[in-house]
Fold this protein.
Amino acid sequence: MRRPHWPRRVFAQLLLSQTVVTVGVTALTAGLFLAPVSAELDRAAMQRALAIAQVTATDSDLALAAAARDSARIQPAAEQIRHLTGASFVVITDDNGVRLSHTDPDRIGQRVSTDPGPALRGQTVTAIQHGTLGLSARGKVPLRLADGRIVGEVSVGIDDGSIRSRLASMITGILLCAAAGLAAGTLVTLLLAHRLKRRTHNIAVADISALLVEREAMLHSIREGMVALDRRGRIRLANDEATRLLALPEGAAGMLVDDVLPPGRLADALTGRSPGEDLPAVRDDRVLVVNRMATADGGAVVTLRDRTELEELVRELDTTRGLTDALRAQDHEHANRMHTLLGLLELGMHQQAVEFITETSGSARAAAERIAEQVQDPHLAALLAGKSAVAAERGATLTITAGSHLPDAAVDSRLLVTVMGNLIDNALDAASGAGRPAVAVTLDTDGSTVVAHVADNGPGVAPALRETVFTEGWTTKKAPGHRPRGLGLALVRRLVERAGGRITVGDGPLGGAAFTVELPEALHPVPVGAAGNPPLEATR
């Protein structure tokens, strides 16, 4: 014979367990209700018997008859009282406990079956006792003469069967109420089980456990950030990668997105205020791509991809392409110069050839030396030299203004290279539509603070847009196929603000826009009296 198995489905388990609980609770409640009712009925019966006995004991004629042990007078009176009150028996005894009345006349003259002592001593007694007439609720009082002398007792009993019959009549109503409660509980359980069956798609409990385990393993092993939000925009779940990329605080679950992220495109993308696919956003110094999908319950699941390294590689590739184009142009120009030199030599114009070589090589060397003299940080100087070549290839001029100076004492050269590279690229793009594109770079120091200005002769930035240009994804240029636009200025602002500085945009001296960056504590202290490059200790 096969043993019964506990049901595997969630709704079936709920239905069975709730039904068992409902039946058990209903039975327990009915039992707990019946116990005090039975006790109360016994107490009421004893009080009724006592009241009858007390009223009977007030009859002086009965007391005199009991003193004279005249059962002939007492028996009719006792039976009359019994019939009038509905008591099971009314027994009157003398002062020795011998019956002077009884429902069975043959028992008159015999001693009572229960102890008459307490009543004969003047005490009032109520009890459930078993006597010659069976179990009954009894009330016993002393029978006194007018002078107070006790001459007997009055014992009145109410049959226990009548008490149980009253209890039985009440049980029917109690059971009907219990049945109604049981039916209501079963109906609610069925409704809950049916709803749970739909919500759980009728899967087994073991399958739910396996799904939870697999979900946890999957969420914390994938290298993409995942955030689950409820309909109010609160974080329900965030895997390890999402916590890292968004820099979420500990205990972020249950908090609103706007409470854990600063205002901006990233918070708008997570909450759905900025719709779209593959939305670029910036969190600190990281470039993220955000996708949001709504769920049936009104919430959403957001995926985050880290494009920081890819973005850096793409920017390096763009720079390399620009330098390659510049080198290709310089190679072409060098070939033209060599052809010119060859022609001068073939024509016998040796002096002109010497002057041509001197002039050509001297101008390039002078430009490089001027940059190196003004900008002593090697990384930034190399960037400006390369950007100058790129600008020349694009038909633009990139100049380092007179008076610019930056010592070789930068705390973070990469920060300066990133900030200046982005600003110069934007300036070259903005000036590309001018007749003679021009970009001017000014570098200055104020103690340990670096102040940089990048100006162009492009269309400029309208006053109403001077905050908007730093928003992720905002751009006036068409995005190339390999990467999104609108991240450069947003990333620059985040980097500058993280370093404790600020960046602003206004009107420039060339007629276009001018971006100003202030970076405090960006330089190591230079010893007083040092000239040229600071000593090695000052650059560490």
